[in-house]
Amino acid sequence: MRSLGRVVPLWHRGADGLCDDFASRLVVDGDRAPRRRYHRPKSKEKPMKRVTLTMTGGIAHVALSRPDKMNAVDMPMLEAVLEMGGSLAQTEGLRAVVISGEGKAFCAGLDVASFAMLAAGDPEALIMPRSHGAANRFQQFALVWRSLPVPVIAAVHGACYGAGFQLALGADLRISAPDARFAVMEMKWGLIPDMGGMVLLPELTRGDVIRRLTYTAEPIEAPQAERWGLVTEIADDPLARAVEIAQTIAQKSPSAIRAAKRLIDVALTADRAAVLHAESREQTDLVGKPDQMAVIAANLGGRAPVFG
């Protein structure tokens, strides 16, 4: 298991937008000395940072880092996000995750130039293979956040379109700036949303809303998104509010928070009997255990709990 460490930028080659491996990555494991792994680059262009990670008190802040392109998703960013999600799933002591975008937008969707090159290939070979259980790697771009054992909070500002919207839908909560705009943008390009959106949208809003967003590709403002259940709350500073919520979560029992996320996932997808059984199973595994005893002691002592 990885211990919480320092800022760990993820880097990819940016020459053709089609690479799968990191050109260079700083690896920090617990108290071991940092080491750098290298892969031979295919070009002499400088690697481009796509995603950054900052750890603070058990809270991971993941930032999409392509501000000059409004954080548009190219293949290096997609692979960096998948790598980040896999890494966080193995991070010891993780309590919550906040996702944001650098620059003037959360994420403006797919990078048209990069994916136009992919469209020239075989779509069957690109899209149909299942790389992550029932999902392909494009769908996992959004679903990886649902697979994390802790709550994930998206702090959204500016444009949140297409792939970026579906990524935000993969978070447990979405905190939006008042002027953020959301869109299922794929129909603009003669396509349908295929990055997990049709799994995530029905959990949050009505069928007719999904149809309107999908058929028209028209952006909607944050207040409308909130009314339709697509935004959890609106804040003038969504990143600050997301961090505040994450800090509140980090003060709760870590085992109870993880149990709650598992239980809610079951409640959204399973039948009545399975949900009732999951409630009982999760509660049984919490009662009288060290984390719960720490909460009881803290409440009786009028202090913050200390977890082992």
Structural features, described:
The protein has 308 residues and is α/β, with parallel strands linked by helices. The protein has two domains: 10-250, 2-enoyl-CoA Hydratase, Chain A, domain 1, CATH 3.90.226.10; 254-301. Helix content is 41%, strand content 17%. The chain is built from twelve helices and twelve strands. The chain has helices at 75-89, 112-119, 123-127, 137-147, 163-169, 197-204, 207-216, 222-227, 238-250, 254-269, 272-286, 290-301, and strands at residues 10-12, 24-27, 35-38, 48-56, 59-64, 96-101, 152-156, 159-161, 173-176, 181-183, 220-221, 233-234. The chain has a seven-stranded mixed β-sheet with strand order 1-4-5-6-7-9-12, sandwiched between helices. It has a three-stranded mixed β-sheet with strand order 8-10-11. Strand 4 (48-56) and strand 5 (59-64) form a beta hairpin. Helix 1 packs parallel to helix 4, helix 4 runs parallel beside helix 5 (163-169) and helix 10 (254-269) packs antiparallel against helix 11. The longest helix has 16 residues, at 254-269. The chain is globular, with a radius of gyration of 20 Å. The two termini are 16 Å apart. 40% of the residues are buried.
